[in-house]
């Protein structure tokens, strides 16, 4: 399973890249706003800065909701760097735009997926990735992981090449469960990746190894 980080924070992206486990980055307009990135020139420069750090796909989201606007924005984004994946919302105009970009050989990530039907539609249009939002489903007492299972079954039934990018991952158990089900990619915060490191027996064991070494060598 590929590990993407869901942030526009350059320091966090660099940290994950330096760990040697990073396969890509996803952003969205909220994450860009959180970093205080506004205005077309700054937004474009920030995407370019992310591409310069990471070895892998970088999802950059369009703001337009009409086909022509999405195409215009997506083409500008794609021209920035070959790593850019145009992130497009799951709406009717978005499906048309995904088909357009797919025909042009430009990668897309269909975002705001909350049902298997939406994922199927995006895959039919040729999306490179679909992004089902696990955490936001959990937030409304709906099993986000069941959606990943359902999409996995459907895509495997028909051999869709569209990758399942489990998004809105909030914690380490989400990551483990995505890996068990067979999501192609997970995107989450750095904190969820850090949480995978942790086990108390690791800390206790390391402390004892170092203490024994110190005793034997003093
Ligand atoms: O980037 C889309 C998704 O990962 C957002 O996550 O935590 O805002 O639901 P969250």
Outline of this structure?
With 218 residues, this protein is of the alpha/beta class. The protein contains 11 helices and 8 strands.
Total beta strands: 8
How many individual helices? 11
Strand proportion, as a percent range, falls in 15-25%
Q: Output the radius of gyration.
A: 19 Å
List low-confidence stretches: none
Key features?
8 strands, 8-stranded parallel β-barrel, 56% helix, alpha/beta, 218 residues, binds SN-glycerol-3-phosphate
SSE inventory with pairings:
Elements: E1 2-6, H1 10-19, E2 24-26, H2 29-34, H3 40-53, E3 57-61, H4 67-80, E4 84-89, H5 92-104, E5 108-113, H6 116-124, E6 129-132, H7 134-139, H8 144-158, E7 163-166, H9 172-181, E8 185-188, H10 190-197, H11 200-216
Parallel strand pairs: 1-2, 1-8, 2-3, 3-4, 4-5, 5-6, 6-7, 7-8
SN-glycerol-3-phosphate binds at residues 6, 26, 28, 133, 135-136, 167-168, 170, 187.
Structure explained in plain terms:
α4 packs across α5, α6 runs parallel beside α8 and α8 packs parallel to α9. The protein has an eight-stranded parallel β-barrel, surrounded by eight helices. The model has no long low-confidence stretch (mean pLDDT 98). The protein contains eleven helices and eight strands. 56% of the residues lie in helices and 17% in strands. It is of the alpha/beta class and 218 residues long. Bound molecules: SN-glycerol-3-phosphate (G3P). The site of SN-glycerol-3-phosphate (G3P) has 10 residues, from α7.
